[in-house]
Design brief:
With about 190 residues, the chain is mostly beta strands. It is about 10% helix and about 40% strand. Strand 8 and strand 9 (about 135) form a beta hairpin. It starts with 11 loop residues before the first helix and ends with a strand.
């Protein structure tokens, strides 16, 4: 609604309590979810834009990833998302069903140093970039001049079309500069030979 004033009435922890109540009432398997990533946004000229603080926000969004064998299941769009408005109303709950998962076998994981070297050689995949606060999936590797890596971790990557088998990947997160602006980017590289 366009006539809402900005500013969240309750703190993030209280929204998280409401989410746990929602998950419980739906018998949703929240134990397999990561801690949420929390973002704030507001309505501005008929567009929803991200803002940094809850005081400016009209909406608060909680995005969860699934956990599989103690690793994040990285999906280009959040598999579980819950959004409230500043009147404490639930306005969106979306999820992507994971289905049954079973460990089929174990393979040796390549060391992060080797994965980084292969990534530097152009063998990784750019799987996500964020421009102007909007996250979008990217289908092809783009040559970027310099990427400052900030974080690397093991995860499972679930592409838009669900494969029969999930394999672990190294996820590399960082920033690059495009048209004079910092752009967060995420790369993936297979974690097994």
């Amino acid at each position: 609604p366009a006539n809402q004033t900005a500013g969240l009435r309750i703190n993030v922890e209280e929204y998280q309590d409401q989410i746990q109540d929602l998950f419980s009432s739906l018998a949703f398997p929240s134990s397999s979810l990561s801690e949420p990533s929390v973002t704030f946004s507001k309505l501005d000229n008929d567009q929803i834009i991200r803002v940094k603080s809850p005081q400016e926000a009209t909406y608060v969004n909680f995005q969860y990833n699934y956990m599989l064998s103690d690793k994040i299941l990285f999906i280009s769009t959040s598999p579980v998302s819950v959004t409230f408005d500043n009147q404490e109303r639930l306005i969106n709950f979306t999820y992507r069903s994971l289905g049954e998962t079973n460990l089929l076998s174990e393979y040796p994981i390549i060391k992060p140093e080797k994965a980084l070297q292969l990534l530097q050689n152009g063998e990784g995949a750019l799987i996500q970039a964020e421009e102007k606060g909007e996250t979008s999936a990217i289908s092809s590797l783009e040559k970027l001049d310099t990427v400052n890596l900030r974080r690397a971790y093991l995860a499972y990557y679930l592409p838009p079309k669900t494969p029969e088998l999930l394999q672990p990947v190294w996820i590399f997160e960082g920033e690059t500069i495009v048209a004079g602006e910092n752009v967060p980017v995420t790369y993936a590289f297979p974690a097994i030979d």
